[in-house]
Structure formats: C-alpha cells, structure tokens
Amino acid sequence: MKNLDYTTADLYSPIVDVKADILDLPFDDENFDIVFCNHVLEHIEDDTKAMKELYRILKPGGMGVFQIPQDLGLEKTYEDFNITSKEDRKKHFGQYDHVRIYGKDYFDRLRKVGFTVKEVDYSKTISAELVDKYRLTSGEILPVCFKS
C-alpha cells in the first residue's frame, strides 16, 4: 500500500531491505507499529530470545502476527536439540531445517515475553476466497500479539 512504509528483513534472502538475524535485530527499540514474522521461529533454537527481539522492536500499542506451523493436538511444544541430522529433523519436525513442532503452549510462550495474545481463527471469520488468497489453513489459529 502506498500510504505505508515497509521494511523487509531476512538472514539469507537476496531481495530484502535489511539482512538481519532475528536473534539480534538491527533496529531501534520500539521502532515498528506492526511486525509480521512468518514461519521463522520454528527454525530458531533460542526462540525465546527471538520473541524478545520482536517485542523489543515493536512500539507500545503495536501489533505483531507471528505465524508458525503448529500441531494443535500437542499440548506442549515438541523440541529436542540433540536431533541434528536433516533426515531426523524431517522425521521428527516435518522439515529438515525445523527444530521443533509448536503445540498449544505457543501462545503462552509469547505471553511470557510480554505480549498480550489473541488466538484468532480467521478461516472462520473471512471468506473462503480470502482464506485462499492469504494462504491460511482452515482451522489455523494465528497469534495476534500486542505490546502494552
């Protein structure tokens, strides 16, 4: 949208505005009104530190959406950092470069770093066309996070 300023960031992508490590973001405190972090945290061993960085760069009153693959059949996130081979990670976490499968406790993990979290299933509140357009999964619960 032309009325908004965007900053894209990634550690490896050649097409972003800023090369950035989510564990040490090169942005000032309270710099962004909105932060989208899409399918990153499942790759990061120290996800608590990454969540704290997202909290740090968000302005008070700001909003974040931190989408991850999640198994809502799991009460607790499954992670084992002794699993390091690509084959074993794929077997245990569904993808060779994932280090965990988040369970229902994901939302509480975000709350522990300070976020107020709303658990929202947009697939029940928007049209099927928009669910497809935004590539949401039916029944997927997104954490819509706010910094007080």
List the main descriptive attributes of the protein structure presented here.
148 residues; Rossmann fold; alpha/beta
Please outline what is shown here.
By secondary structure, this protein is α/β, with parallel strands linked by helices. It contains 4 helices and 8 strands.
Folded structure, characterized:
The chain has 148 residues and is an alpha/beta fold. It has a domain of 101 residues: Rossmann fold. The protein is 22% helix and 24% strand. Helix 1 links the parallel strand 3 and strand 4. The chain is globular, with a radius of gyration of 16 Å. The mean pLDDT is 96.
How do the helices and strands line up, and which of them pair or pack?
Blueprint: E1 9-10, E2 18-19, E3 32-38, H1 47-57, E4 58-67, E5 78-79, H2 86-93, E6 100-101, H3 106-112, E7 116-120, H4 128-133, E8 142-146
Parallel strand pairs: 1-2, 3-4
Antiparallel strand pairs: 4-8, 5-6, 7-8
Number of helices: 4
Q: Order of strands across the biggest sheet?
A: 3-4-8-7
Class of secondary structure makeup:
alpha/beta
CATH class of the domain at 9-68 and 106-146, please? Alpha Beta
* Rounded mean pLDDT score: 96
Looking at the structure, the CATH topology of the domain at 9-68 and 106-146 is Rossmann fold
Distance between the termini: 26 Å
How can the largest sheet be summarized? 4 strands, mixed
What is the second-level CATH architecture of the domain at 9-68 and 106-146? 3-Layer(aba) Sandwich
Poorly predicted ranges (pLDDT <50, ≥5 residues)?
none
One letter per element, helices H and strands E, the order comes to EEEHEEHEHEHE
Give the CATH H-level superfamily of the domain at 9-68 and 106-146: Vaccinia Virus protein VP39
The coarse silhouette is globular
User: Which percent band covers the strand fraction?
Assistant: 15-25%
